[in-house]
Amino acid sequence: MSSVTVRKVRKSFGAVEVIHGVDIDIADGEFVVLVGPSGCGKSTLLRMIAGLESVTRGAILVGERIVNHLPPSERDIAMVFQNYALYPHMRVKDNMAFALRLRGMPASEVEERVGRAAEILGLAPYLERYPRQLSGGQRQRVAMGRAIVRDPQVFLFDEPLSNLDAKLRVQMRTEIKELHQRLKTTTVYVTHDQVEAMTMADRIVVMQDGRVEQIGEPLEIFDRPANLFVAGFIGSPS
Ligand code: ADP
Ligand code: MG
User: Fold this and answer.
1) Which of 47, 99, 114, 175 has the highest count of CB atoms within 10 angstroms of its CB?
2) What distances in angstroms separate CA 14 from CA 18, 56, 92, 187, 206, one per listed residue?
3) Could you say which residues of the chain have pLDDT below 50?
């Protein structure tokens, strides 16, 4: 695991600036939740950390290293998306093994890593199935499995539960937290759901319109919101 630093980061698309100078320090092993209304820049920030978007100004560091110009594959970061992005024509085990094989990892180690991730996620009975033969929750676990097998320094989650029904969402929150307690991998988790943020985060980063409004532990933010926006947003679950 590794710390992640977002330092005076700005992002423009064409002439329009959408991230206006953001500073966030994430400690080794911390679970940080970025929360804010739709369009406030959460995904853009996460994608810059992942290397899927360029950084217009400022710096992103993983550990001590500035990664602005490193391609995603060299950042030692694994990202889990909202829409799973599983390969429909590949069995679960091959979905999980794909990125490792691409890197030329020996077959025996690939098998070992896939087996271990499947055990952690309760996917061992489903390794031979295709994604269409799985429930929504199982698919989400496969998407997490693909991240875990890489044994990255950092996990990034972009609204991973928003396609699931309410009951499953609550269950998966617990599973993701348990996973974090087990692996202790530094995690940046994006959601627009205040309850998800309050229940999962070590620290919450509240964003609005491309700016950070407040950073703090859930109770601290709940009890002492920095301004009316934070008070209204955290105080009124949608
Ligand atoms: P969130 O994830 O918080 O909903 P986004 O990071 O997706 O917000 O978007 C932040 C802002 O940046 C929005 O105004 C969005 O329209 C804009 N934006 C995001 N991606 C692009 C893009 N590729 N080109 C132009 N504008 C974009
Ligand atoms: Mg988004």
Assistant:
1) 114
2) 10, 10, 40, 30, 25
3) none
Predicted-assembly ipTM surpassing the 0.95 threshold: yes
Residue 11's SS3 state is strand
Neighbour tally for 189: CB within 10 Å? 28
Tell me how far apart the alpha carbons of residues 197 and 47 are, in angstroms, rounded to a whole number: 19
Chain CA centroid to CA 83, Å: 13
Write out the two tokens for 60.
């992103």
How far does the centroid of ligand 1 lie from the alpha carbon of residue 221, in Å? 25
Residue 3 token pair: 């710390």
- Alpha-carbon torsion, ordered 66, 38, 78, 3, to 10 deg: 40
CA of 41 to the centre of ligand 1 (A): 6
| Token pair 């988790």: residue | 189
* Amino acid 236: pLDDT: 65
How open is the CA angle 96-98-99, to the nearest 5 degrees? Answer: 100
Please answer whether residues 212 and 23 qualify as being in contact, where contact means their C-beta atoms are separated by less than 8 angstroms: yes
Please identify, by atom number, the ligand 1 atom nearest to the C-alpha of residue 45: 6
The pTM assigned to this predicted structure is: 0.93
Ligand 1 atom closest to the CA of 192, numbered from 1:
3
Distance (Å, rounded) from C-alpha 142 to C-alpha 99? 13
**Ligand 1, from 9, 18, 19, 49: best to mutate by most atoms within 8 Å of Cβ?**
18
